[in-house]
Write a structure and sequence with these properties.
The chain is 66% helix and 0% strand. The chain is mainly alpha-helical.
Length: 104
Amino acid sequence: MGSSFRAFLNSPVGPKTAHFWGPVANWGFVAAGLADMRKPPEMISGNMTAVMCVYSALFMRFAWMVKPRNYLLLACHASNEAVQLCQLSRWAKGNGFEVTQRRG
């Protein structure tokens, strides 16, 4: 086994820890959100999508503040935040909400 791989294996965020497997499992949220992009906006739950946005925002902060910093978790939740905000936008447009630009 190479020393770099051994160092990763035994690191505080390596595959022997929840700091690794938690984010790996959370990529499922991103995959599900991307798969749901094919569904019509009427199928999107605005409440659940908003909850997922808050959830990912909170876990992005957690990933940044926890020691050692968990960049894998941060990337996962940043990706999920982007996907969920896109879904929330699709839901809003599908339900007649319009974003108007204020001039002045």
